[in-house]
From TrEMBL:
Binds 1 [4Fe-4S] cluster. Gene3D superfamilies: Helix-hairpin-Helix base-excision DNA repair enzymes (C-terminal) (1.10.1670.10), Hypothetical protein, domain 2 (1.10.340.30), Nucleoside Triphosphate Pyrophosphohydrolase (3.90.79.10). NCBIfam families: mutY. This is Adenine DNA glycosylase. Residues 35-186 form the HhH-GPD domain. It comes from Maribacter aquivivus.
Length: 349
């Protein structure tokens, strides 16, 4: 029995019941694939269901404002995916009259759609013989064939795509592509793969040569940058006991583009309360404070792909009214990074 036949047999017996598998609608498949990039199925599924509920069609998503999209995306990270999702929906509506392109090459024209996503949509929705290559597929192919070429090198990307095309089952491409990804997620997992009961264990090079724990090979990551964030939360209470704060939108091309945040003081190292008492005017301007309190004594380390954010939240109680204040009850309506969302949820104004 061939490699692809074993994958198909395994998939038909072991596939999970996932909401997007009940459809070949390219809109729903596209949504699921974008959401599941850099995201586990268990985490991504509620987001998928929420997007389908709030935006049942590509027209609904295209006509939404960006803040709505970012708010629904909140907590998934890699927010450029959400902005690209929104942009691609508009492209489908404006350039393709609301119908997704039905082939790999045209799908690549959509914002945020690369080789993997175009292959997945074209094969699952239109039965085009395009092999998918994601992290799961890299792992399965690398281990089974004993390939130590780095999967994130230019050579490796080309080699594994070519190999994937050679070993796929073009006649059953829809199930085969889903099958090999599922196989990598469940059977040939990154840690503690189920080699003893694997249908490929009689011909897997990595298992034979003791290379399961060393394959696939990846080039070393870019050096992580440490940054020090100090969020200053101004708190003002009026005569009626209503509380207000300040929040503004991030601009530029850095992390969390177009999300909202409290006034931010970025420093070269961890700051203490005496530093904040002196420097708070750098971001709060003419606001006059009668008390500054550290919400968290030790910095929270929020890890991104190439950055570690050492973050402190500071409560700055303000004496007088200030411009552009926002009632504290409304701040949960804004799309914010998960770091700030956790603070808003935990802190009781």
């Amino acid at each position: 029995m061939s490699f692809s036949s074993k994958i198909l047999d395994w998939y038909h017996e072991n596939k999970r019941s996932l909401p997007w598998r009940k459809s070949t609608d390219p809109y729903k498949i596209w949504l699921s694939e974008i959401i599941l990039q850099q995201t586990r199925v268990a985490q991504g599924t509620p987001y998928y269901l929420s997007f389908v509920e709030n935006f049942p069609t590509v027209y609904d998503l295209a006509s939404a404002n960006e803040e709505q999209v970012l708010k629904l995306w909140q907590g998934l990270g890699y927010y450029s995916r959400a902005r690209n999702l929104h942009a691609a929906a508009k492209m489908v509506v404006e350039q393709y009259n609301g119908k997704f392109p039905d082939n790999y090459k045209k799908l690549l024209t959509l914002k945020g759609v690369g080789d993997y996503t175009a292959s997945a949509i074209s094969s699952i929705c239109f039965n085009e013989a395009q092999a998918v290559v994601d992290g799961n597929v890299y792992r399965v192919l690398s281990r089974y064939y004993g390939i130590d070429t780095p999967i994130n090198s230019t050579e490796g990307i080309k080699y594994f795509k070519s190999l994937a095309q050679k070993v796929m089952d073009p006649a059953n491409i829809r199930d085969y592509n889903q099958g090999i990804m599922e196989f990598g997620a469940i059977q040939c997992s990154p840690k503690k793969p189920l080699c003893l009961h694997c249908p490929l264990n009689d011909s897997c090079v990595a298992l034979e040569k003791g290379l399961v724990d060393t394959l696939p090979v990846k080039l070393k990551k870019v050096k992580v940058r440490n940054r020090y964030f100090n969020y200053l939360i101004p708190i003002y209470k009026d005569a009626d006991g209503n509380q207000f704060t300040s929040i503004h939108q991030r601009i530029g091309k850095g992390i969390w583009q177009n999300l909202w945040q409290f006034p931010l003081l970025e420093s070269d190292d961890v700051l203490e309360i005496d530093d904040i008492s002196i420097r708070y005017k750098e971001v709060l301007g003419d606001m006059k404070s009668n008390e500054v309190i550290a919400y968290n004594v030790n910095a929270i380390v929020h890890k991104l792909s190439h950055q570690h954010l050492h973050t402190k939240f500071w409560l700055v109680y303000i004496n007088d009214d200030f411009a552009n204040k926002i009632p504290v009850e409304e701040i949960s309506d804004f799309p914010v990074p998960v770091l700030i969302a956790d603070f808003i949820k935990a802190f009781k104004f």
